Amino acid sequence: MAKGLTSRKEDYSKWYNEIVEGADLAEHSAVRGCMVIKPYGYAIWEKMQQQLDKMFKETGHTNAYFPLFVPKSLFEAEEKNAEGFAKECAVVTHYRLKSNPDEPGKLMVDPEAKLEEELVVRPTSEAIIWNTYKGWIQSYRDLPILVNQWANVVRWEMRTRLFLRTAEFLWQEGHTAHASKEEAIEETVQMVNIYAQFAEEFMAMPVVKGVKSESERFAGAEDTYCIEALMQDGKALQAGTSHFLGQNFAKAFDVKFATKEGTQEYVWATSWGVSTRLMGALIMTHSDDHGLVLPPKLAPFQVVMIPIYRDEAQFEAVVGRLKEIKKELEAKGISVKLDDRDTQKPGWKFAEYEFKGVPLRLAMGPRDLENGTIEVARRDTLEKSNLDQNDLVNKVSHLLEKIQENLFQKSIDFREESSHKADSYDEFKKILKEKGGFIYAHWDGTTETEEQIQKETKATIRCIPLAGKKEAGKCMVTGKPSEQRVIFAKAY
Amino acid sequence: MAKGLTSRKEDYSKWYNEIVEGADLAEHSAVRGCMVIKPYGYAIWEKMQQQLDKMFKETGHTNAYFPLFVPKSLFEAEEKNAEGFAKECAVVTHYRLKSNPDEPGKLMVDPEAKLEEELVVRPTSEAIIWNTYKGWIQSYRDLPILVNQWANVVRWEMRTRLFLRTAEFLWQEGHTAHASKEEAIEETVQMVNIYAQFAEEFMAMPVVKGVKSESERFAGAEDTYCIEALMQDGKALQAGTSHFLGQNFAKAFDVKFATKEGTQEYVWATSWGVSTRLMGALIMTHSDDHGLVLPPKLAPFQVVMIPIYRDEAQFEAVVGRLKEIKKELEAKGISVKLDDRDTQKPGWKFAEYEFKGVPLRLAMGPRDLENGTIEVARRDTLEKSNLDQNDLVNKVSHLLEKIQENLFQKSIDFREESSHKADSYDEFKKILKEKGGFIYAHWDGTTETEEQIQKETKATIRCIPLAGKKEAGKCMVTGKPSEQRVIFAKAY
Residue A42 and residue B36: Cβ atoms within 8 Å? Predict the structure, then answer.
């Protein structure tokens, strides 16, 4: 399969699509902009879900489920939020089909089944959830509410790309309610930290934590925190966001609580989410011109075993031994697939699993069986070696850790090489054109300047880094004073 | 809380609603017929999901995800299926809202953003999935496909009830593709067996496995297998279905495969699903006039601990000891909630957790602390006893097992008492009117007779039991010959 793969240099976007489809991760569906997530791709998403869900629960959150549909009148209650999503809303207007009298066997929308009020398919759930929270919150005793939802959402995008931008996508959305501003901000920061930890420890993807500029903020938020990653083509990808919503939704839905002191106050809110877009980020961060590369912590199976044999007797002997080893590996918590199909040749299998990014490949033939050895190939470095079967479980375990670390280190190195400072607008444009990547530059803090830069260069402010050091400087465009460099990049 | 609970005798339906809402399981939303599943209710659903997902994976299935929307032209391809669901379809017709010029701050559907082809919000996914499988299947080597999806679906119901019948609900739907009829039937039967095993072992809910009569069959199926449970009001509840779809969808979507012999054949299909309706079944099977009763295997927490104290020092001492016990229980895999809130009195907490169906309550006061004892209350029998703290983990573990068994046995006993044979139509009507329950009777196998019975008595054929013994008899209505008794009941 890898033979046919377009290289990153040749056409990065084509390379990406070929990996997504060729590695059986996802494909386009008959519905414009909607994707089918195939079993192998979904298994990676499940691993992500399990880990994130664990981290959410460890920090006191519980899951719940809210309706898919939002009545238009609720949707428009928080005006900024509504305005921000109005152009991307799929709208249900009817609730019945009927036989089409003009075309036997065909159906048509029944005009008599028109809804009195249109229903928006949720692009995000603040509206329906805050309308619900109104019934849950009376006093400070009812706070905080720390709820998360795993769901599908729909945003009608005109230009879609598998995982990165699809009309329907899967995500989680946390929606919390608090008695004080401080507590809500603390929650917002806690969640962006959790996202960063997940990205780095599990996806092996380094991220910058930061705050969005006003124009990149979530519609309806007071502040949007984010994690930004850098892809191999030098473009940035926003991988997760956590919003401090202030009292905007509480005011829109009239959600007040009685304080300990007996006064009535509006509730403070946050929301935070990551989506199947993370799949796109994962693919683009590690994969190479041989196909997908997966970090062991998120691989559906970490080890694939392939028997080499010439006849039935050899097959039995080799597969017998591989089954023993499989059991030992699984006992140690390592996930293993033994591909003992006789419909495909070993060479075909080698290519298949290399393309699918399985971290470690173990191959064993009759000679290995005699010698007590086994061939191990790492997907990240493509290195092969012959190992003694003795103490194999610990060796495999150790290798998987090394692969996880190596992928992370490689991505950090790449990001460091691709991060530049620009001190003038000309320098900025030059770097952007020649190298791309993260460009740290001074900006005067105004939306006007930001828009001008975007218009002239297509770069946007990815974030104001949380860990960025204060440094007096001058905006590269207007020369006005700036306190800190912000990160510019072209972005997905 | 239980004080206010309507009794089952008084008003069964009201009792049910009060439990669902009072135990914080679910509530109605602002969207007609759609529910909010609250954290405590969702935690039970998560337990169900985890167990079912495990059972599906152990039998070789993997998860995937298919689009929420089905283009009308695909939806109508399998005519029987389309006809069966047409009247319940929510339809997306537009993809954008815009500002309403007549009402500042309000939105309206943008008439210019009308879709060329309407999109049906999936009521079930056979159409979109078989349209996808067409691209996945060329040869017998691509079969079987054993895929499951966890998703939301929408069926526009006119009369809704929380969990039992809602416009949107959560479910899993398995969709498999096979090279032979035999293999597809085997899969269909395997899945109904898995559902039965899940219902009995985890929900502690006895079920009858059977086959549906033609008129109760899934639209587009050749045969529908089901599990039927009996609720405490004598009404039946269909708790899960598994469909043998024959080649109907393969023909509708032209999905053929090359056999080993080189011929082209249509693929054989199954689909199977259970939904959040199981929550309704669980609630109605075990709960009593004191509130919800949960089987330990599906309870969000199996044990609740409540400290009894008069002052700060007692609180510290008692809670300190409870925390130690909690750790010991958790180490054994028992889930525990320690409610050490000082905003609520112990009596309030007792009532709260009784209503919420927590299987075991442990209460400890200063005297218990001195004596090394603890009070244990079982939710199923409401029995209290004082246990020695010595070896408490094993005692709790044993009690949880006993509760699980007791709930199952009680439900079996109830079903046995509520199952009757009727040998004449008069006897049938009398039993139905006086006792309800499952009525085993002979039927001539025709849809006409079935419809007559339903019209005259409101009872339907729940299933033709798989384990029912062959027994020559005469249809209670027409006197025509019958080979086996079938189960009639009024149903949810």
Answer: no
